């Protein structure tokens, strides 16, 4: 297998955006191409992730994005894997570059939903659950993650204030990210007094609905050395699965797909969780971040909540978790999120993270899952 590098990265701001789904994908992709110091004609294939293109009247985004970049003759793949679509696209591009099919590939992720309003977006998103058992019974994602939160509280004596601290930390980080959706300082009291969405989760325990697009350029090592002053290497890539419906899982306080994906990625990278300096994890709800950092092996089961209480996951704490602001503050445009996490790792490891820089960081990890973790991908990167 060829060694695979990330040569460039770009992102729109996340939030409520006016431009069309195709325009924002183009903006992020042009940024990534410029950041890589290449031309669009250097790209041999495109992997485009999106979930509800139908909301902005455009599906089959692969060929549309390639056409807009002036490379309509190149193959593309339009990929949907719920909120984990972005990392699955990255994995497909990674596998094809590693296998030697292409020397350079574009990964772009996008979502444009806020114009449909909360009721419609909640309905659309519920189609990503196991709809027969969950969505059609009226359980939406806040409700499903609330079940996980209750189980975690019962098993590990965690409190709602503990969950609130995850939100406070991620909003603090998001304040330092000019592209974040919710750039607002909040306190534990703000979280505790915000509206209940699905008990015990309140407004500030939830990620928002966001629009946004993120893109990265992957290439083999030879191309990176010939073209890139600033690139990072992919050390490990892993994917895993879990029962689509929560009722099919043995425990609600762990996400099996994360553990499977992480084990594969760490094995490929030849490192352990202790070697990781920072991570972008899937904090769609505050409880998810606590479960993630345990499943990834950063903390023992049941100890993630203590780490949060002690501030170990703050920027430049023992391990910086979600320096970008995470889904909670940076935002969650679901088809873009997994790619956006890799943009953050690229920025961190190439000295472009500004005020939110993780000091002396050499190794960064991304973890992005679909739905309640039915599918997951983990990637590990190192600076060169
Ligand atoms: C939490 C949620 C229900 C809030 O929706 P809503 O009540 O319709 O909120 P609105 O969009 O009307 O926004 C009302 C205010 O709250 C803010 N807001 C919205 N969502 C927010 C969030 N998640 N966190 C903090 N503030 C939020 C808005 O900015 C707005 O503030 P303003 O009045 O100062 O402009 C919705 O964001 C949600 O369902 N989030 C989860 C998304 C999800 O499930 N994603 C998939 C994960 S698997």
From TrEMBL:
Family annotation (InterPro entries): Thiolase, Thiolase-like, Thiolase_C_2, Thiolase_N
Single GO MF descriptor: acyltransferase activity, transferring groups other than amino-acyl groups
Keyword Cell cycle among UniProt keywords: no
Superkingdom field: Archaea
Annotated ranges, domain Thiolase N-terminal: 5-221
A Pfam family matched in the record: Thiolase_C_1
Keyword match Chloroplast: no
UniProt keyword annotations, A-Z: Isoprene biosynthesis
Coiled-coil blocks: none
GO BP, sorted A to Z: isoprenoid biosynthetic process
Domain Thiolase C-terminal: 243-382
NCBIfam families, alphabetized: PRK06064.1
Protein name: Thiolase domain-containing protein
Native organism taxonomy: Archaea, Nitrososphaerota, Marine Group I
């Amino acid at each position: 297998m060829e060694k695979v590098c990330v040569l460039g990265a770009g992102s729109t701001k996340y939030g409520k955006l006016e431009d069309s789904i195709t325009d924002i994908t183009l903006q992020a992709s042009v940024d990534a191409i410029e950041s890589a110091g290449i031309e669009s004609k250097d790209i041999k294939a495109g992997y485009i992730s999106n979930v509800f293109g139908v909301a902005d009247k455009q599906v089959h985004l692969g060929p549309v994005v390639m056409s807009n970049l002036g490379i309509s003759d190149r193959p593309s793949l339009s990929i949907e894997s719920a909120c984990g679509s972005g990392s699955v696209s990255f994995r497909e591009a990674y596998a094809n570059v590693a296998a030697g099919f292409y020397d350079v590939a574009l990964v772009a992720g996008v979502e444009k939903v806020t114009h449909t309003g909360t009721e419609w977006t909640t309905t659309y998103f519920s189609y990503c659950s196991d709809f027969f058992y969950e969505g059609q019974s009226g359980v939406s994602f806040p409700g499903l993650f609330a079940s996980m939160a209750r189980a975690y509280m019962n098993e590990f004596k965690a409190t709602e204030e503990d969950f609130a601290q995850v939100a406070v930390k991620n909003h603090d980080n998001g304040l330092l990210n000019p592209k974040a959706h919710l750039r607002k300082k909040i306190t534990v009291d703000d979280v505790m007094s915000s509206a209940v969405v699905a008990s015990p989760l309140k407004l500030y325990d939830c990620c928002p609905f966001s629009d946004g697009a993120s893109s990265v350029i992957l290439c083999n090592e030879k191309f990176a050395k010939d073209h890139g002053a600033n690139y990072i290497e992919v050390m490990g890539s892993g994917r895993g699965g879990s029962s689509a419906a929560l009722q099919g899982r043995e425990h609600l306080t762990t996400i099996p797909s994360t553990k499977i994906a992480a084990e594969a990625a760490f094995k490929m990278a030849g490192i352990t969780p202790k070697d990781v300096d920072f991570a972008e994890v899937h904090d769609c709800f505050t409880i998810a971040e606590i479960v993630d950092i345990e499943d990834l092996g950063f903390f023992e089961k049941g100890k993630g909540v203590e780490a949060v209480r002690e501030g170990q996951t703050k920027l430049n704490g023992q391990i910086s978790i979600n320096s970008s602001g995470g889904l909670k503050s940076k935002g969650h445009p679901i088809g873009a999120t997994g790619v956006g996490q890799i943009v953050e790792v690229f920025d961190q490891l190439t000295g472009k993270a500004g005020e939110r820089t993780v000091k002396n960081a050499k190794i960064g990890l991304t973890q992005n899952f679909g739905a309640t973790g039915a599918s997951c991908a983990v990637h590990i990167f190192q600076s060169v």
